[in-house]
Write a structure and sequence with these properties.
The chain has helices at about 1-35, 55-65, 70-100, 105-110, 115, 120-135, 135-140, 145-165, 170-180, 185-195, 195-215, 215-220, 225-235, 240-275. The chain is an all-alpha fold. Helix 3 (about 70-100) crosses helix 11 (about 195-215) and helix 8 (about 145-165) runs antiparallel to helix 11 (about 195-215). The longest helix is centred in the last third of the chain and has 39 residues, at about 240-275.
Length: about 280
Amino acid sequence: MSNRLTRWLGRVGPTLVLLAAAVFFIAPLLTSFRAAFHKVPTILLDRHTWFEKWSFEGVRRAFHEPQFWPTLSLSLRLALITVVITMLLLVPTALYVHLRLPKARALVEFCTLLPYVVPPIALVAGIAAFYRANARWFLNTDYALAPFYVVMAMPFTYRAIDAGIKAIDVRTLVDASRSLGGSWPMTIRKTILPNMSTALLSSAFLTATIVIGEFTIAKTLAKNTFATFGFEYFSRDAQGGVGLALLTLFGTTAMLGVLTLLTRTKARKAMSSSTRF
């Protein structure tokens, strides 16, 4: 009897876990969607009012807010700057660790996990104190957020890049390129980076989503980013604020979809080219 129960749980258990996870993630989204676009109070909901008074007016009002487009533009620019800085710092670091300092990999991974340990409010307090004493002019600009975002994204981006390096035989590629007379910049640009395109895209996507949704540091430093605008707009228009949050979620999900399509297209092309030989 116990063996039969074990086999039954082995078949049904994973399905139950998936259903529970789906309810856990989808139910809040559906509730937020109704709160954002349905103008009927919950207490008045019935089979007659469920399909009435649906409206996108809250999100439409957000588009006409004076700070909507400037804050969105700033967040996108910060995302681009953070992605560039992250790639310039972490890609050479990860490659150097894999090629020259493999014994230091555990130490580097531990250092990249420190942003998990240090709360964002402590991070911004410490770094802001340094900037105020040495580079107040930089702290007064909106782009002062970029170094904070690089540190916050490091646990995610480094692991994406590290996984991309582990997926290829980087030492063989480097030795082959160098034996053919390629310089280090040419080796990285024409040999390593094309084979890491999927990992780099994943790293860039993770960094961009962190920057667009980050609130604590921007609010502490009194910077008007898209996240702070969404919070302030929610305090004035709760329904429109929820709709704006959902729009941001759908936008980042669309970015993930584009990333998935790009990586699948690249994989198909690589597979088709390999079968020709």
